[in-house]
Fold Fucosyltransferase.
Amino acid sequence: MFPDQRPVRSSRFAATKFGSKTMSLIKFLALFIIAIPLLMILRLTFPNPSSYLKMGFDQERTLNRMSHNGTLIAEHGSADSSNMSKDKFLGGLLAHGHHEGSCLSRYQSSLYRKTSPYKPSSYLISKLRSYEELHKRCGPYTESYNRTLKQLQLGQTQSISSANSECKYVVWVSFSGLGNKILTIASAFLYAILTNRVLLVDPGKEIHDLFCEPFPDNSWLLPNNFPLKSKFDLYEQKSPDSYGNMLKNNILSTSSESLPSFLYLHLAHDYKDHDKLFFCDQHQKSFSEVPWLIMKTDNYFVPSLFLSPSFEPELIRLFPNKSTVFHHLGRYLFHPTNHVWGLITRYYKAYLEKADERIGIQIRVFEIEAGPHKHVMDQILACTLQQKVLPEVDKQKTFIPPPRTSSTKAVLMTSLSFGYFDNLRTIYWEHPTITGDVIGVYQPSHEEYQQTDKKSHNRKAWAEMYLLSLTDVLVTSAWSTFGYVAQGLGGLKPWILYKPENHTTPNPACGRAKSMEPCFHAPPFYDCKRKTGADTGNLVPHVRHCEDMSWGLTLVDTDSNNDL
Ligand SMILES: Nc1nc2c(ncn2[C@@H]2O[C@H](COP(=O)(O)OP(=O)(O)O)[C@@H](O)[C@H]2O)c(=O)[nH]1
Ligand SMILES: *[C@@H]1O[C@H](CO)[C@@H](O)[C@H](O)[C@H]1NC(C)=O
Ligand SMILES: *[C@@H]1O[C@H](CO)[C@@H](O)[C@H](O)[C@H]1NC(C)=O
Ligand SMILES: *[C@@H]1O[C@H](CO)[C@@H](O)[C@H](O)[C@H]1NC(C)=O
Ligand SMILES: *[C@@H]1O[C@H](CO)[C@@H](O)[C@H](O)[C@H]1NC(C)=O
Ligand SMILES: *[C@@H]1O[C@H](CO)[C@@H](O)[C@H](O)[C@H]1NC(C)=O
Ligand SMILES: [Mg+2]
């Protein structure tokens, strides 16, 4: 249910050959015990899938492609949209003043991506520029940083006057799968913007290897000598210095005389009711002057920020189109390092660039046994054929002369396993398509199991999320943060392969997402004002339950024409 918490398999053999029955049973029971009460309490049904199955996906967009000498050519657009300088800064999202050679992807992404139909609001752009100023003034080793750090070293309490120092921070702690990390950094950054804090990112093992610095004048990486760093791994739901536990144990004094110099915010999937009070305005106010907030989360918690009366007006100004939050913040923050950019661009040019259409299929299987699974393969075929993402093959004929209008489609598959790709590729090699279209199927890697601490593994994972985001039509797997990153960066509303239950292909096999936004998997169900439980997916029109997880929350646009 919370895929990322499944124990990471530590050897290839454990995953593929000697899967332990006992472990499987325990995991199955654990899933069962967590899932049943949640489902019973919520009794939330899927929205009628037929309504979005009917929607088309032939969004009119300009396809920009790079010619061999590096100038941009537009395929279907008018001549003026081919001007590269036009979208180099992503509609103003990106700041000038970065050194270009140190991060080629930052300004080259517009050579590989379609121009986004979603424009960042001018208010968002001005907020980003003022955030960059704040970061320059307060980032690592600035005078203000040094001063605020001293407060941390002086001890737990301080007077309110000195607490009012100019710089306050939110420290993101490295945690969980790479997809989750990307979603939570974006969430923490938005929280930082809303609260005038500076975001500092715990580099963990991979952040500096995967992502360029996003801010022009100072690093976003938390210095290694940060005093609390050795405690990061120990922070968990039971930590006595978490805000939730301090509340629960009445340790936070209500007198405004003293404040702790830091608080640990436990916002991971296993957080408790007291931790969830983070999302209530009165609690936000109570720690608004604490200079250091240390945050550990594996969840995209942005949808719940939209339910806060104090954040909502600002959020709507920043994102008049509510479903574009991750799309814009993701494109602003996450630029592949040159090493990863090499993986992306070589693959794109070799296999994807020349096709008339690019189709991404992201297969993430949350089954206990190693795959490939027949019910998953059946589901991939049922979805892509029924929704006409891919053409049928004619198994009777051996040769169909391609009609003049036939096209070449490149299918980019990503999966930890090899079998689904092998199967699909073979189908389109052994048989002609009834349309005469030629289908090429490609998969960059099959890493077999999650290897979070391995450099080359993480680079491939990031490159593949990014490559998926460069496709024209996307099919993703339910519950997968890996797929959420791809859809959000790409500005794509994917076909979601619904989560199979009981080793059975779901019917329908997939449905069209309402929104390109990620799903918040573990939202609170609490009405802060009334202090009672509430169905938070039913309070405002733009925060709804997710298609792929009935208790999750996601942002949707409320305008009737929903820009499809
Ligand atoms: N290269 C590659 N790695 C994958 C793929 N699917 C899962 N992984 C690995 O498993 C991790 C899964 O964690 P996460 O990114 O949070 O995605 P999620 O578990 O699907 O939500 C990824 O970060 C990768 O390390 C895939 O299709 N390709
Ligand atoms: C690059 O290619 C384009 C079109 O293919 C052409 O118009 C342009 O003159 C070329 N520029 C250089 C510098 O070769
Ligand atoms: C792009 O447009 C700008 C102004 O709109 C113009 O100055 C520049 O020459 C154009 N560049 C190309 C490559 O067409
Ligand atoms: C915002 O969404 C509306 C409809 O949902 C659309 O017409 C409009 O073009 C979008 N605006 C931007 C800037 O993306
Ligand atoms: C902040 O402290 C570091 C040493 O911890 C020092 O190297 C740096 O120069 C200081 N910054 C300023 C602006 O004084
Ligand atoms: C799961 O599938 C098996 C047969 O495939 C069936 O006997 C069983 O009742 C199913 N269980 C549930 C909970 O649907
Ligand atoms: Mg994940």
Remarks:
- Residues 5-23, 37-83, 560-564 have pLDDT under 50 and may be disordered.
- The chain has three domains: 49-56+356-522, 64-112, 122-320.
- The pocket of 2-acetamido-2-deoxy-beta-D-glucopyranose (ligand 2) is lined by residues 67, 69, 71 (CB under 6 Å).
